[in-house]
Amino acid sequence: MSKSIKPYLKDIIQLADYLINTFASKTRGDLYSDPTLQFAVSYVMQHIGEAANKIPDAFRQQHPQIQWRKIINLRHRLAHNYTGTSYSLIYDIIKESIPLLKNQVEEILKTLPEEN
User: Fold this and answer.
1) Chain-wide mean pLDDT for the chain?
2) How far apart are CA 72 and CA 54, in angstroms?
3) CB 52 within 8 A of CB 75
4) Alpha helices (H) along 23-97
5) Which residues of 22-36 are buried (b: 16+ CB within 10 A; e: fewer)?
6) pLDDT tens per residue, range 83-106
7) What is the CA radius of gyration of the chain?
8) How many angstroms separate the CA atoms of 100 and 106, rounded?
9) Which residue in 73, 66, 64 sits closest to 101, CA to CA?
10) Which residues contact 50 (CB under 8 A, 6 or more apart)?
């Protein structure tokens, strides 16, 4: 395994934690009405997608339980605003998919050998 994979996985966990903690007390309406929150969420989700994109395909294929392609595609949609941003979808992803992603990546990290 390349030593460069772990930092990307750790970034995903740290960024997921940020979203989970930020949205622990936020509602869908909070996201709809707060442009600063929208910007922050977009930024964080783009970075999750960027970290996923830097993980080699072979490693991603070994862990198909994670929807790598969807994560990367969302990053592209947010970064390039292809079809506008659906904050309803973003809210659902944060509440439902991000905690699962965090848990899955944590489980993968547990299986990787320690680095020197």
Assistant:
1) 93
2) 10
3) yes
4) 28-33, 35-54, 57-62, 68-80, 87-92
5) bbeebeeeebeeeee
6) 678 999 999 999 999 999 999 999
7) 14
8) 10
9) 66
10) 75
